[in-house]
Amino acid sequence: MTHDTFDRPDIEDDEHTRDDDTPPGGEVIPFPRETAVDPDAEIDHDQDDDTDGETDQDDDTEVRVPVDPPGRSRPTWSESVRGEQRRDVIPAWLRSREALREQSAWVLDHYKHVFAFHAVRTPVYAGTLALRSPLGAARLVGGALRWVSDADGRPVRAEAVRKADAAEYLKLAKHRDGKVRLRGTILAAAVLAAGVLLTALLLAGPTWALVVTLLGVVAGLGWAGAPEDRPVIGPAVVKAQAEKLSSGMVLRALGALGIAEINKAVAKGWGPRAFVAPITRDGPGWRADIDLPYGVTAVDIIERRDRLASGLRRPMGCVWPEPAYDQHAGRLVLWVGDQDMSQAKPAVWPLAASGSVSLFDPIPYATDQRGRVVLMSLMYANMLIGAMPGMGKTFALRIALLAAALDTTAELHVWELKGTGDLSPLEQVAHAYGSGADDDTIAGTMDSIRYVHTELERRAKVISGLPRDVCPENKVTPELAAKKRLRLHPLVLAVDECQELFTHEKFGKEADTKLTAIIKRGRALGIILLLATQRPDKDSLPTAISANVGIRFCLKVMGQTENDMILGTSSYKNGLRATTFTLKDRGIGYLVGAGPEASTGRSFYVDNPGAETVCTRARTARIAAGTLTGQAAGESADTDRTPVHDLLADILAVVEPTEAKVWNEIVVDRLAELRPDVYGPWATLDSQAKPAQLTTALKPFGVAVGQVWGTPVDGGKGANRRGITRDDITAAVTKRDGNRAAD
Ligand SMILES: Nc1ncnc2c1ncn2[C@@H]1O[C@H](COP(=O)(O)OP(=O)(O)OP(=O)(O)O)[C@@H](O)[C@H]1O
């Protein structure tokens, strides 16, 4: 069955809606009269046993109640027109700068190729034409003689001779003589003109004109001498195998899926009405918008993608059925590409050679089936990438990290727990970096996690201390991130193969608790968590983490559980099935949370040398901006792991609000307990240097230290010693945060 046309279903849609043989106005259901008159009366249940299925019109025990409301069965013009979806006035490829650029680049590239192809073969073409020119000359002379001698009329004259029809023959011979005379004259004139022109050129014309003419003559003769099946110039491109997508092909493929409802609908004539818009060219492929029969959903088709591809006689990687997210569940958008997505040349990452990034703006992350760039905004989000081994997780994580590296204000903590060094180019820009599945690397990862976790508290305090007009939404904004003293710059923590961390005997639980807190609270505070895993089960990826993540990229996985762990609960049911990707679909996955709708995309491909180049550029930019810190700046890993501390906040943390005044030495001991790596050395000083150390440290904050009354911790005699007043510390914090806000 083929259908080359489509009908708009909204026109005369009443017929369509009557596929189920329902009469207009709705079915009439008999109600027992007793029920209407006397609700307490006993209902005669025998009438339900009316086995012939027909309603007796004359039965005076029943009244008829229409099920559908009275009124027009067809929608009014206004109702049907208002319900219509408007098609783009200007095609999508003309509206998007990216798409326009892609289209123009393609046209330019195509003609560049055609030109280069023929230019390289010019000597071959010239030689072939020269070799064929004698044959061409012979054909030309033969053709001219046949024309002059009116060879075409010979069979007719021969027939007159055969019939011995003298009158007819004489008439034909006379006609031919006239023709031959005229044509002979024309040919002689043409030969003479050509001879004169050639002689004139030979004697008086410029050499180039003579050469061009001779070449032209030889080329022309060579062209005329070419055998019909072997033209001189071959095509520079081989036409794509892909056939134009027709409604017939689509319907045939849908009909072959083994869905009973479709088969029933096809038998009733469902078909051309299925297409809600003409099948159009959309990027490097065809798009069909289809209303499936009642009861069939787009998901029913998506889960049979392999069979659909077979029905369309296309490779799986060309066939991309999707739900129309803004429409009903039975609307299918089928995009059929000219080329298998996995075979297409990966697009070049727009930031590979130049450009910088602000993580507050969307970054180019992937390309969809149609070659359009898929953007992703990392700020205020976290990302989870999952796939079975070897499908492109690390590459996908690396793109996000390369973008973060190109934001000079972003602080990167990169931990790759596979140990292959796939993220090693980032070492030159990362504040903390480690590669390996060993305990030391995992301990290093934990240090970064603890640091980021501490940052949560600090950042939350800074933000809550800012005046409302400076921070109206209680979250980091580009303006606040730019204020260096607030230290609210983007903080990116990435863990590749994070299952190694979560399943670690010693650190697994702590990692779970701290990362859950980070994922829940970090978004507003400028903290971005990026996780990649090849084992998305509940032991390897805590559910609290998989449930709270914002952006999800799921490459090929084996089963529904992994699919839903990465993409979110019910994703499989809703048609997002990363199980349908093939092993060839490396780098291709479903991206959820990056835009209003889920999309299929292939992450940009930047290999290790390419990543080195990007990171070298990022490092230069960071040095210029003065933001190269931590390991990248040559600080040792130990120093690097030293948590950033806030002395005033730390004092407030160790001195209870009920303690108005505390001796310096007691404060120092408590601080050393809170942060041994920072304040530990202070606590080891002698009894005079210890309080003096705190006095010196507090001087830059303008906090004066005086004699305060107190008692030793071991319960000795009370005395006056150097100490702080808690209110002075609180006042200093208020003053400092106020100043920062005003910066
Ligand atoms: N976007 C992409 N486009 C094309 N090929 C890709 C893309 N991403 C990854 N690949 C290919 O897939 C291969 C595996 O990628 P990658 O190392 O990222 O996989 P992985 O899932 O991290 O593997 P493993 O689980 O072993 O760590 C790469 O060598 C690369 O050739």
From TrEMBL:
Regions crossing the membrane: 180-202, 208-226, 373-392
Keyword Transmembrane helix in record: yes
Binding-site residues, ATP: 387-394
Segments of this protein annotated with the region Disordered: 1-82
GO biological process: cell division
Keywords for this protein: ATP-binding, Cell cycle, Cell division, Membrane, Nucleotide-binding, Transmembrane, Transmembrane helix
Gene3D superfamilies from the UniProt entry: P-loop containing nucleotide triphosphate hydrolases
The FtsK domain, residue ranges: 360-564
Biased amino acid composition, Basic and acidic residues: 1-21
Molecular functions (GO terms): ATP binding; DNA binding
InterPro entries cross-referenced by the UniProt entry: FtsK/SpoIIIE/SftA, FtsK_dom, P-loop_NTPase
Biased composition (Acidic residues): 37-61
This protein's record includes keyword Transmembrane: yes
UniProt-recorded name of the protein: Cell division protein FtsK
Source organism per UniProt: Embleya hyalina
